[in-house]
Amino acid sequence: MKRHRVVIVGGGYAGVKALNILATSGVCDIVLIDQHPYHYLQTDAYELIANECSMTTVTIDLVALCLSYGEHVLYVKDTVREIDFANRHVLGENSGHPYDYLLLCAGSRTAYQSSIVGLREHSHGVKTLLGALSFKQQFEQRLYEKMESEGGWRNEPFNIVIGGGGLSGVEIAAEMAFYIRQFHLDNTLTCDNLHIFLIIPHENVLDGMETYMVQQATKRLLELGVKIINHSRITSVEEHLLILNEKESLCFDFMIFAGGIVASTLTASLDVPKNKKGQLIVDEYLSLPPYENVFAVGDIAQLRDKQGNIIPPTAQSAEQSGICGAKNILALMHNKKRTAADLRMRGTLIALGGPYACASLFGWIRLSGLGGYWVKTIAMGFYRYRINAQCARGLKRLQKKNPSCRKGF
Ligand SMILES: Cc1cc2nc3c(=O)[nH]c(=O)nc-3n(C[C@H](O)[C@H](O)[C@H](O)COP(=O)(O)OP(=O)(O)OC[C@H]3O[C@@H](n4cnc5c(N)ncnc54)[C@H](O)[C@@H]3O)c2cc1C
CB of 176 closer than 6 A to ligand 1? Predict the structure, then answer.
């Protein structure tokens, strides 16, 4: 059988899952293009910004990962700007790649609405590793400056504002509040004047999620001292000043914005149907009509369940759709019929600061507190362990080829 050439754009949750299926099939040559040489574990970002882990814990080496699959898989560091669907060609900033099959997995980015003046300039996002790192560094610098200043935060309030009450906003608010509580316990510095505000547009956090999760998350956030400001829309942001609902103001020292996502900038250059968030409209097989050989999976696509309901952009749906897209590419290679995607949420795990999480699994298991934390830790740890073990194989391969290349040198 002729070896087909598959190009995967994006090595996130969807891309690496698809890569595994395609690479282990042994029937194609694969090029994985990503603008970064690592897979950023966004689901663990809250741990990074709250100083509970280092940068290495939230990244997976894409070069080692690709090497682990052997000579038929190549990693290319580039940013894809355009796709010539007619001529089956992917155009990056520095390279061009022909393809027989294309899998678009370029994910999403923070939705900085242009209608909110000053939002992009004065807030931090954590959807990229650089964003999370720069937030962490600047936050610590600012804490230091406050400690140094006369009276520190004993006199002046230190306000952290988090915009958005979805999964990521809630996790970040809880983790920051827990971090600050620990900071106080470890240093005996009073944090009475240090406040975390969670600004949400709806009545409750986690709008649309099941009642159990909403109740558990709200209880924990309040217990940690997070001030939830509901029914509030951010209308503009100035340096250290937030305007809510066009009239109320709130001073802040730091602001994180986690109020939704839009698709990767790549979709702007593609002349195919998209939704308001720029996500690509795919068919039931996750192909991008009218191109049967092009698939879009993960956050970059508007994904639906079997009943036709739009499903939220999560690592879980990214992985499931990545698997489906890869399997359908293999089906086309073997002249078989594609299978319709059957994407379903198996559960939700929400970290709520330190050794505390809540979990709702398979529609009937519900846990919160330490039990939830262990479920989340095991799930994340297992994901990391499996993928790191695969990377270790890639590293060994490299060391065999080039004995002078040893870990640590
Ligand atoms: C703080 C936070 C907490 C979260 N917590 C959870 C959680 O607990 N559970 C859960 O299920 N989900 C969670 N999510 C959501 C989850 O992380 C995303 O849904 C998931 O990352 C989507 O996977 P993806 O593969 O589609 O995209 P991504 O993981 O974003 O990967 C996209 C990849 O494409 C690359 N890329 C983008 N554009 C280009 C281009 N033009 N050229 C080349 N490469 C490109 C990027 O560098 C990236 O590596 C969280 C998100 C955040 C921010």
Answer: no
The chain-wide mean pLDDT, for the chain, equals 92
Say whether both 300 and 234 belong to one domain: no
Mean pLDDT, rounded, for 176-185: 81
φ/ψ of 388, rounded to 5, equals: -70, -35
Q: How many Å lie between the centroid of ligand 1 and the Cα of residue 299?
A: 7
- Alpha helix ranges (H) inside 34-188: 45-49, 62-68, 119-122, 129-148, 152-155, 167-187
Confirm or reject: Cβ of 259 under 6 Å from ligand 1: no
Residues 278 and 168 occupy one common structural domain: no
Give the span between the Cα atoms of 135 and 316, in whole angstroms.
Answer: 26
Domains in the chain: how many in total?
A: 2
Show the domain range for 17.
Answer: 4-35+78-110+262-345
Pairing of strands 261-263, 254-257: unpaired
Instruction: Determine the average pLDDT of the residues in 257-268.
Output: 95
Is residue 124 domain-shared with residue 176, that is, in the same domain? Answer: yes
Per DSSP, the three-state class of 33 is strand
- For residue 9, how far is its CA from the centre of ligand 1 (angstroms)? 13
Bond into 355 cis (ω within 30): no
Predicted structure pTM score = 0.94
The confidence band for 408, taking pLDDT boundaries of 50, 70 and 90, is very low
CB-ligand 1 contact for 44 (6 Å cutoff): no
Same domain membership, residue 246 and residue 134: yes
- Give the CATH number, domain containing residue 147: 3.50.50.60
Domain termination site, one of 289, 322, 345: 345
Q: Are residues 123 and 191 in the same domain?
A: yes
Distance 43 CA to ligand 1 centre (A): 8
Residue 380 CA to ligand 1 centre (angstroms):
15
Retrieve residue 311's tokens. Answer: 């499903």
pLDDT of 409? 41
Same domain, 152 and 103: no
